[in-house]
Amino acid sequence: MFSLAEGCGCVSFRGGRRTRSLGDDSSSCRSSEIEQEVPKKLGKRILNGECTMKALAPFLKFWKRDDVSMTKAERTMKAAILIQQWYRRYLARMEVRRRYTWTIFQSIEYAGEQDQVKLYNFFNALLSHMRETSGKPSSERTSRTASVMEQVFSEESDEGGGVDETAPPKNSREPDIEFPLQRKDIDLLIETFRKKKHRLHPKQVAQILKEAAQMLKRLPNINVATTSISSQITICGDLHGKLDDLLVIFHKNGLPSPENPYIFNGDFVDRGKKGLEVFLLLLACMLAFPGGVYLNRGNHEDLIMNTRYGFIREVHQKYRHNAERLLKLIENVYRWLPLGTIINNRVFVVHGGISDTTDLDMVRSLDRDKYVSLLRPPMNEGAAPGGEGIDKVEWKQVFDILWSDPQTIGGCVANALRGAGTYFGPDVTTTFLSKNKLSFLVRSHECKPGGYEILHNGNVITIFSASNYYELGSNKGAYLKLCGNSLDRQFVQYTAAVSRTRRLTFRQRVGLVESSAMRELHSQIMTARRTLEATFRSMDVDQSGLISVSDWCFAMEETTRLGLPWRMLKDKLVRTDPDTRLVRYMDTFDLTANRGGRKSDAQTVVETLYKNKRSLEAIFKILDKDNSGYITLEEFSEACQLLGKYMPNPMTQEQLVDICRLMDINKDGLVDLNEFLESFRLAEKSLHEEEHMIAEIKAS
């Protein structure tokens, strides 16, 4: 009469006696198959997740018609088993969706970091080349740069937007905090930031940054924390501009103090909208509660990373007239942040991890302030022209502890996903802990669904404190409390914006995160559209618009290098021909073809510019050696001469001069960021027009 569909907890109705399939335990049953085999009303209930006795009441009617006599208890037991089996498979399907969604987010995130780190080789060669050709900057050039910066600041100050160090804050509704900071000032800051009442005066922001830098200068490279006074210590992971999460932590665990100390393990800014507020509040707490706050540097405490991931844009939006000067103060704080913390000589807390070459003695002895950016390491002043200008051994020590990730297998290999740091295995961890007489390692750097993860037989703990990191409901945040002399571990999980997430069912949360992931993935696909389309057409010998599933999966991975389960994602991205089972590959670029149903407009030049804007800003900042906000002809020529080594048709000096003059739209002898971006837009537009013309010629 009815049976469970093979390999699934769903139900099919057939003539004759009821049967139950004992097929494989797969959870990949299609919703369309369910609707065909189950009566419509019941099918809708099952698809909506209504796994209750009321929803499955029709099954009991069929049982009653069965000629095999059953007691009430037997029928109840069979119904319970049926519900349990279906619900387990339902949860399994949700878990599969959640996992591939998580894989999409992480792959895209790491691909972005990899792109940023890939610029390191270019930047390093560029700096070496500039040093070889120009030598040390002359005093005339240095004085010219200084005078330009002074002129810019004075102009901003004359307009009323600059930071006047001598004048008191204007009479306004800005929070009236006083220095040195005390508990009441922290309460006022929290109230101001939480209710979004008013913004701090730029002078107050500058003072917090300056005093914090002075305090950090006095600290060692590796902080020393103890629980002798407090008998406990709290470790927080990445916050990434999530002010709500920081306030939740303070609400649940109390404000910092010598009796309630905190370690914040880097990555305070970027991605979130409140990075500046998070950073200022942490620095203010460090100033107000000496011995109550320890700050470690993360890989995002780096202005080059900030250029790509949003913090610099945030500062410019909030302090339009003072952004550049405040960013210089922020950069000074970055360079003095300690690189790690050791608790009770037993626990090493660091942002990224370790490698098989990590040497804590070397880390303790290096000059951390010279590493303004790890992606632009300092040049050795005493190195001979043409020689190695970077101390790579020392630089690698810092890079590894800020960028590395643990792996489950043994050994230590380069971190290919991020493009920097290492993957270190359990054996590397054991050796490191034994050598330094440590018990375990606490690190951050990776988002985890539950906010934390324990690896390497309990020797490595990952803590991530930014909840809803990828999307609302995507993950929990967590912090770790180490209690008593034995440093017992206590994990506390939480979710910011609880009122919004509670209204969503599990299915809705998974669907919301999945939709967001597919939009991000579609953006990555559109970025690589030109290469992908060419690869698809080369596989489509008959030009039928169809290729095999295997060819489609191979092309997607070969082009995007995201390491995603493309065969599983196929039904979300493309349609297949019902007769041949071949993939309609042009659907890859059209979101209306997948179940998300969001219409995708044709790609425009503006979209092309937007998707490359972050990379272009990062490149502009690197080429602008003197941080004046302009690229001079000299700076542009030096960069292009280096690029000529890697280009098939290097340009002459005259051609370089002509290009720079063409980029100088207002003809003032300098190229600013807007002119740089506009030049790219025009070049991209010309390239698209040329490709369109070639395509028309081929078609005709």
Structure description:
The chain has 700 residues and is α/β, with parallel strands linked by helices. Strands 3-7-8-12-14-13 form a six-stranded mixed sheet. A five-stranded mixed sheet has the order 6-5-4-15-16. β15 and β16 form a beta hairpin. It is globular. Residues 1-44, 129-172 and 595-611 have low confidence and may be disordered.
* Helix run count: 24
Portion of residues within helices: 40-55%
Low-confidence segments, given as residue ranges, are 1-44, 129-172, 595-611
Multimeric status of the protein: single chain
SS content category: alpha/beta
The value of Rg in angstroms is: 30 Å
What percentage of the residues does DSSP assign to strands (E)? 5-15%
Strand order, sheet with most strands: 3-7-8-12-14-13
Distance between the termini: 62 Å
Shape: globular
Instruction: Give a quick account of the main beta sheet: strands, pairing sense, barrel closure.
Output: 6 strands, mixed
Average pLDDT, rounded to a whole number, is: 76
Care to count the β-strands? 20
Secondary-structure map with pairings?
Blueprint: E1 2-4, E2 11-13, H1 31-37, H2 40-47, H3 57-65, H4 72-134, H5 139-158, H6 183-195, H7 202-217, E3 222-225, E4 232-236, H8 243-253, E5 262-264, H9 275-288, E6 293-295, H10 303-309, H11 311-318, H12 323-336, E7 340-343, E8 347-349, H13 360-365, H14 392-403, E9 405-406, E10 412-414, E11 422-424, H15 426-436, E12 440-443, E13 452-455, E14 460-463, E15 477-483, E16 488-494, H16 498-502, H17 506-527, H18 529-539, E17 546-547, H19 549-560, H20 566-573, E18 583-584, H21 605-623, E19 630-631, H22 633-643, H23 653-663, E20 671-672, H24 673-699
Parallel strand pairs: 3-7, 4-5, 5-6, 8-12, 9-11, 12-14
Antiparallel strand pairs: 1-2, 4-15, 7-8, 10-11, 13-14, 15-16, 17-18, 19-20
